[in-house]
């Protein structure tokens, strides 16, 4: 039915002072800052200052602007503000693999702290591809991310330092911040925040616990060669051997992936080859799960025949049978600290931009004493 048929009188919307609203608001299109200025009877610059909240604007003028914003349903163009450098975008977590329980807990910590500070968080997965990492960091730079958090071990060296320095300088140029979590630190003088956890100290505790229980032939199932976290855990293992005057045996030192399958295969192969060992130090709890499967398949009891320790203290570690003795890493705190330092300029200015979080040995039922 038409307006004439219903007898309804068609009127045009008017402002509080009797004037028609200007611009796109009449046509049903998104309102612009010019529409707000016209409705409030002020300049565009005054609207911008009132919305920014960091320029001197009278309370009366600010109230008129906010009334116009509300009546026109005006939405601030956040992207435009980001391009002008006046507002930072999300916190981006760039991670190798999101399926692992330890890295997932880092992501949870990043999300929690970002949310607490009113920031969105993005998770970007590289699958270990450095080219993809380059592309993601560049994309986050273009999006004016508040911070870019890189998580996971890396192979230290000149090439690594060059890449990370390039990231740090490029992000800093747009007001963003590079944070390295569990990665080798960079030389001083670069705009980067580093959050580490004590891999070497934790590995020393785990190996020392086995050695104190009387074990002298400890099979060490480490990570990939040259990876920073893997080498730090290997260093802690070897330091504990030296502290107990136990000779290092190369045949007991195994490198591989930090996966359940890798733990199973390496333990199975060691048993089939007749390698003599009374304990296993698994580089991660996921590796330890594979070790348990291989030992049980061979008819061996844990800890009656072979003792076992892990690393990470993922949620299921205490639910294994037997409950796994392992090293607890505060992964969620790693993520929270990364965001806190990246967004807390005062803390950075105070020199608090390189933090090493402690690890802790959690003793359960998977280690037995030697007779």
Question: Can you describe what's shown?
Answer:
This protein has helices at residues 3-6, 33-40, 44-52, 59-72, 78-83, 101-116, 130-142, 158-173, 199-212, 228-243, 260-272, 285-297, 331-343, 345-349; strands spanning 91-95, 121-125, 147-151, 178-181, 192-197, 218-221, 253-254, 279-282, 307-309, 326-328, 354-357, 360-362. The protein starts with a helix and ends in a 9-residue tail after the last strand. It has a 6-stranded parallel β-sheet with strand order 2-1-3-4-5-11, with helices on both faces. A 4-stranded parallel β-sheet has the order 7-6-8-9, with helices on both faces. It has a two-stranded antiparallel sheet with strand order 10-12. By secondary structure, it is α/β, with parallel strands linked by helices. Helix 2 packs across helix 4. The radius of gyration is 29 Å and the shape is elongated. Strand 6 (218-221), helix 10 (228-243) and strand 7 (253-254) form a beta-alpha-beta unit. 43% of the residues lie in helices and 13% in strands. It is built from 14 helices and 12 strands. Residues 1-27 have low confidence and may be disordered. The longest helix has 16 residues, at 101-116.
